[in-house]
Amino acid sequence: MKVSSNLRYVMVYDLKGNTLYKQKMDGVTNHLTEKENKIALKHTIESWNFRNTISEKIGKANYTLQVYENLLRIIFPFGDEMLLIVTLDRKDNPNEIIQRLQTILSGNPSIPRVHGF
Question: Are 88 and 71 contacting, i.e. CB atoms less than 8 angstroms apart?
């Protein structure tokens, strides 16, 4: 959670939609209801599973970036059976945050691990 002050949520789900980890930053106001979040997650997992079916032809997805007026959602593969979903405020360009998260996910020992993420 200390990767950026723009973080709103960090969530880890398996590819069946089960919540494995979820943390919301202090002071964050939800844009969607719980029901809307579940529907969005269902579509996210369906899209990710489709990407996996065509990965032999186009390669594995490194991440997906969804850009909305009010926030950004970045979805990373987390192992073979999980997704890391990070939601950010639209304050800055997400490239640095994406690169840092990819480095952490790759297990690069030069980046110190932060408790809780």
Answer: yes
